[in-house]
Specification:
about 10% strand; two-stranded antiparallel sheet; disordered C terminus; Glutaredoxin; about 240 residues
């Protein structure tokens, strides 16, 4: 592995250590075998480096490569695959159609599936919560079907969205695994990644979580729960405590 200084890579991330999108980029860096300087930031007190690197959205993570910033996690993952083709395994599919499909589902996970899931914790009553849970379960059902299609290699089914090895859509979805479990626990609903309801997706999550080097990168579920109830939805924490 070439050192961070030689590669000229810096990664600006939230200090909390639970950022889904920072972890996604770290997964891609690990897949490519790239060293980098890890620079934690306080999102409430944005540094001059962050403001200069991402003046439009002023959000994290940001990858800086030889002084040039790249923003937005999925874009960063693609950039790393393009900028370092000789390092590690390819992340995006080589086939243009499979690449387009992977991008479509990655955007679906970010823009529809996860907002629906975490939206369960922002409901006003039991009926709203039940409706949001159903919406989320439907999204998992669609991903179950997508996995069956994306993982095909000839007549056989491969273990990952990327086929025989972890790829773009695996990383895009895999960084959410601890959050899905944490939200399910807090909402008091059965696991979203349920072997009875979505067996392929549940088995995929087990394989992904056990894959090196992702074991060390996935945030502990307890830590995610603490972050949700103390930072994102403190009112939820009060409501849960009052109902116990």
């Amino acid at each position: 592995m070439v050192g961070a200084q030689e590669q000229g890579l810096k990664l600006l991330v939230p200090r909390s250590g639970v950022s889904i999108y920072a972890i996604r980029v770290q997964m891609a860096l690990a897949m490519k075998g790239l060293a980098y300087d890890y620079l934690p930031e306080d999102p409430r007190c944005k540094s001059d480096l962050l403001l200069a690197s991402n003046p439009v959205h002023k959000t994290l993570p940001v990858l800086i490569h030889s002084g040039r910033p790249v923003c937005e996690s999925l874009i960063i993952v693609e950039y790393l695959d393009d900028a370092f083709p000789g390092n590690g395994a390819s992340i995006l599919p080589a086939d243009p159609y499979r690449r387009a499909v992977a991008r479509f589902w990655a955007a679906y996970v970010d823009n529809k599936m996860f907002p629906s899931c975490i939206g369960i914790l922002n409901t006003a009553n039991q009926q709203e919560r039940a409706d949001k849970v159903e919406e989320t379960l439907a999204a998992f059902g669609l991903l179950e079907a997508a996995l069956a299609e994306c993982s095909k290699e000839g007549e056989a089914e491969a273990p990952f969205f990327g086929g025989g090895s972890i790829g773009f859509l695996d990383i895009a979805l895999g960084c959410y695994i601890p959050w899905f479990e944490a939200i399910g626990r807090l909402a008091g609903v059965p696991p979203f990644l349920d072997a009875a309801r979505t067996p392929k997706l549940a088995a995929w999550a087990g394989r992904f979580s056990a894959a090196k080097p992702f074991i060390a990168l996935l945030t502990a579920v307890d830590k995610v729960e603490e972050y949700i109830t103390k930072v994102l939805y403190p009112k939820w924490n009060v409501a849960v405590t009052a109902s116990n």
